[in-house]
Fold:
Amino acid sequence: MALTNFLLAVLGLIAVLGPFGTDVYLPALPQMAHDLHTTPSGAQLVITFFSIGMAIGQLIMGSTSDRLGRRPLLIAGPSLMAAACLASAFAPNLTVLLLTNIAIGVAACTGMVVGRALISDIAKDNQAARGFALMGMVVGLGPVIGPIGGALVMGISNWRGIFVAMAIFAGALALLAILKVPETLPVEKRHSGGLAKLIKASGSIILDRNYLRYSLVLWSSLVLLFGYIAASPFIVEKLLGISPFWYTIDFAFNGTLMIVTGGIVARLVHKVGPRQMVKLGLAMQGLAAALFGVTSLLHSFAHTDVPAWAVFATFALIPSSLSFLYGPVTALALRDIQSLTGTALAIQGAVQFLVVGTVAALVGLAGDHAIWPLAIVLVCGSSIGALAFIKKP
Structure:
């Protein structure tokens, strides 16, 4: 079975439900906090609980896809998300909204883990890296269309209307999966299931040092991304005094950069190899962390104003760098995993979203005018990723 660009586009659109689900209501977080009578940190818990759902869901979806196949779950995931989004739209308080966002996260993760497992079924090495990069380029549409779509909905409704729009989008993707997604895991290659089988498979995957090394690079990189996603609306709108409209434009511009760099990676990875792409991505993250770290030190101790150019430059570097990491790192991590790729990706994704869910809550603890929590996140995340890459397995 060929890994066509059309199939990659379909898988990417289903996978975009994850970042789209996080980003679409970013412009509405301040409004959400006011409407639900909570703090900025309380509103950011929506992202945290969404991430918890993503972590739980990937463990369920990844191992289940190794047992039942890829196609059924790529249909069920968007369908469940549509239902959970409708429940969120009618949430009477923050507690209910947090619980429904766990369900959204469980469903939204399907494309990210099962879709990548489908790619791994039919492509290896540099071809897989190219496939993951192209899929990531489509996923990069999430940061572009998410905030723009959210802002447009807020123009005629409010944050509740955003969840209704998400339900419609997820339902349409469920129909697309029914029509266009094939099954790529033959029955003879599926495992029989059961807790013992899952534990045994997970143990062998976790003991693979190459897998752990590159997974750590990916986890640390996504710490930077989700720290930026959670903190950026408050830094831009509250600290810099820039309107939600212009914040949305900047967020969409950064998402566009992510798509462009994803296309560059897809074209070059065959020529230079995935490791060179990873080096470039880590260098970009180090530059972003250094720039924002110095800005934070000057703001906190010298009491200087926060320059808008430094904030926007940092926020452009972070998503752009991920394009150089997402596809190549995933391919490198799975290099020695001969089977059970769904479970391997589930473990990778579960840890990833547990970590970034914690980060989303931490960056808002010091209030909506503090930048030092995000600076610490960026410096620590970029340092851990670089050290993991440099250290040989």
